[in-house]
Specification:
The chain is built from eight helices and seven strands; from the N terminus they run βββββββαααααααα. It has about 220 residues and is an alpha+beta fold.
Length: about 220
């Protein structure tokens, strides 16, 4: 593999961990910011990326600070592994508007490929039973389906955020003091599914109906 690399390029191998610096983190994006090429960490938090010294490497995962590290600060070669420790944001996945993470196009494309790939076992069942069984029962197949569910939820939350967010609620009600997160928990029937599938009057009248109840109960 190294024979095909230019003299200015290097292979960077390493592990990404949780903030405790011990627990490996799978499914972290590891992307060369210059070329846009990269991968995700495997089940053991391992990654391999090719970069020049002048490049920067992005480490990104929803709910964690996006790290951008100069390639020349990371160890080069297969025998000198780098260790990257992620940092949690102040947000939790169920508390944040996903659009605030500003997902990059390459991230969305990758997420869509993972979701589609998790469904190929159904398509391949007739064409290749062995491939279907592998995806169904292998560790890789299980990890892919788990990751696909996470990505599907992120896309749903992103769609919800476009229709209903803190700014929308304050504009509708004229109430600058309303706590958006508490309001969402109170209005349990304003589910993500309902928001995604309703627009205009149907959606906003239900929001206002819940808001009036909220005020009556002096929440």
């Amino acid at each position: 593999m190294l024979n095909f690399l230019s003299s200015a390029q290097s292979v960077i191998v390493g592990t990404v961990t949780e903030p405790d610096s011990i627990t490996p983190m799978p499914f972290v994006y590891v992307i060369n910011a210059t070329t846009g090429h990269g991968q995700m960490t495997d089940g053991n938090g391992k990654f391999t990326v090719i970069a020049q010294d002048k490049d920067s490497v992005i480490f990104s995962f929803v709910g964690y600070v996006r790290l951008k590290i100069p390639a020349d600060k990371l160890n080069k070669g297969f025998y000198k592994e780098s260790k990257v420790v992620m940092v949690e944001t102040a947000y939790k996945l169920n508390q944040v508007v996903v659009s605030e993470f500003k997902l990059k196009p390459y991230e969305k494309d990758y997420m869509k490929r993972v979701i589609q790939g998790s469904k190929t076992s159904v398509v391949n069942a007739m064409e290749s039973p062995i491939s279907a069984l592998y995806m169904q029962f292998s560790q890789k197949g299980k990890e892919q389906r788990k990751l696909a569910k996470i990505f599907e939820e992120i896309f749903i939350q992103e769609e919800v955020a476009k229709k209903f967010n803190a700014a929308t609620l304050r504009k509708l009600t004229g109430d600058e003091s309303v706590d958006f997160e508490k309001f969402r928990k109170y209005c349990y029937y304003l589910s993500n599914d309902y928001i995604v599938n309703h627009d205009g009057y149907e959606l906003y009248s239900r929001i206002m109906d819940c808001y009036y109840r909220w005020k009556e109960e002096k929440r």
